[in-house]
Amino acid sequence: MNRIDDLLSQPLPPVADDGFSARVMGRIAAARRRRQWTSAALMAAGVLAAVLLLPLPTIGEALGSACRAIADTTLTAAFARIVTSGAINFALATVAVSLLLERGLSRL
Amino acid sequence: MDAREPLARLAAAGDAAAFGVLVRQHQARLRGFLLRLAKGDAALADDLAQETFLEAFRKIGQFGEGSFFGWLCSIGYSRFLMEVRKRKLEPLGEDDDMPDDAPEPERASLAKLDLEKAMARLTPAQRAALTLCFALGFSHEEAAAALDIPLGTLKSHVNRGRDRLAAMLAPWRRMAVP
């Protein structure tokens, strides 16, 4: 069995690079570009959808009144108002969804 | 993460150039390993190697500890098995499923039977186990981790593969070295 072991222990035949590494890195660069474009397109679509579908004036008014209320109240009351503010929660949810989308895309 | 793999850490942080160095460092051995798994089909081995590196780049953040090359072999082996199943290239089971075609001495001489041809008659798991443990110098534990099989199963593949190789190469050796 030692002869078999010696035979098996011989190094694998050398494989020349012949542009292989460059091809791999080219594909990786293309995949990264594709992912960046997809990410940008999704973000743009999200913004467009938000502009077209969301009641932005209402949200703006809600944000304005929240800011006014914050300015008129003590710190504790302001925090409570921030937490219960629908507009702020909406903004946080938007950020969270964007981050989730970004993380999902990075795994593609 | 292994302290010997600082390039893998850089690549995990998004440094594509560091990953490029890793590709150049490991491509020859990975392609050699896959070439043997693919029974000398260079086109298939290169396709698998490219897919392996692409998957490694996507999942570089998941590379934990141990050898980066061992991790590459693990990805490459699972890709090879997927390809074998998809294209029905060969049976994946035990020896019983493999053609028992140990050559006659005359045929062996004519066909210039060598290690690669004898290896091609083993099961994929035996080929992978023997290549990792002997030609690539993995410990049994490292090879078992790379192939994602229990240590006992790995040792069984190694022993059965060696026995089959010895049986297949014995007539050839008698002819080659009278």
Task: Give the tags.
heterodimer; A: 5 helices; B: 178 residues; Rna Polymerase Sigma Factor, Chain: A; Arc Repressor Mutant, subunit A; 9 helices; globular
Can you offer a commentary on this structure?
The complex is a heterodimer of chains A (108) and B (178). Chain A has one domain. Helices cover 83% and strands 0% of the residues of chain A. Chain A contains five helices and no strands. The longest helix of chain A is centred in the middle third of the chain and has 34 residues, at 20-53. The two termini of chain A are 47 Å apart. By secondary structure, chain B is an all-alpha fold. Chain B has two domains: 1-89, Orthogonal Bundle (Rna Polymerase Sigma Factor, Chain: A); 92-178, Orthogonal Bundle (Arc Repressor Mutant, subunit A). Helices cover 69% and strands 0% of the residues of chain B. The longest helix of chain B is centred in the last third of the chain and has 26 residues, at 151-176. Chain B is globular, with a radius of gyration of 18 Å. Chain B starts with 5 loop residues before the first helix and ends with a helix. Mean pLDDT of chain B is 84; it is low at 105-112.
- Our count of helices of chain B gives 9
> Structural class of the helices, strands and pairings of chain A?
mainly alpha
Uncertain stretches of 5 or more adjacent residues of chain A: none
CATH H level, superfamily name of the largest domain in chain B: RNA polymerase sigma factor, region 2, helix turn helix motif
What's a quick, concise take on this entry?
The complex is a heterodimer of chains A (108) and B (178). Chain A has 108 residues and is mostly helical. Chain A has five helices and no strands.
Any chance you could write out the topology, listing elements then pairs?
The complex is a heterodimer of chains A (108) and B (178).
Chain A lengths: L1 H8 L10 H34 L2 H17 L2 H10 L1 H21 L2
Helix pairs in contact in A: 2-5, 3-4
Chain B lengths: L5 H7 L3 H22 L4 H17 L9 H20 L17 H6 L4 H5 L4 H12 L4 H8 L3 H26 L2
Helix pairs in contact in B: 1-2, 2-3, 2-4, 3-4, 4-8, 7-8, 7-9, 8-9
